[in-house]
Amino acid sequence: MEFLQTSEFWIGLFNIILINILLSGDNAVVIALAARSLPPRERKLAILYGSGAAVVLRILLTVVAAKLLELPFLQIIGGLLLLWIGVQLLAEDDDDDEGEAKEHSNLRSAIITILIADLVMSLDNVIGVAAAAKGSMVLLILGLAISIPLIVFSSNLMMTLMARFPIIVTLGAALIGWVSGEAVINDSAIHDWVHANAVMTYLIPAACALFVVLMGKYLQKKSSTEEEATDSPS
Question: Which end of the chain has less neighbouring CB within 10 Å, N or C?
Answer without folding.
Answer: C
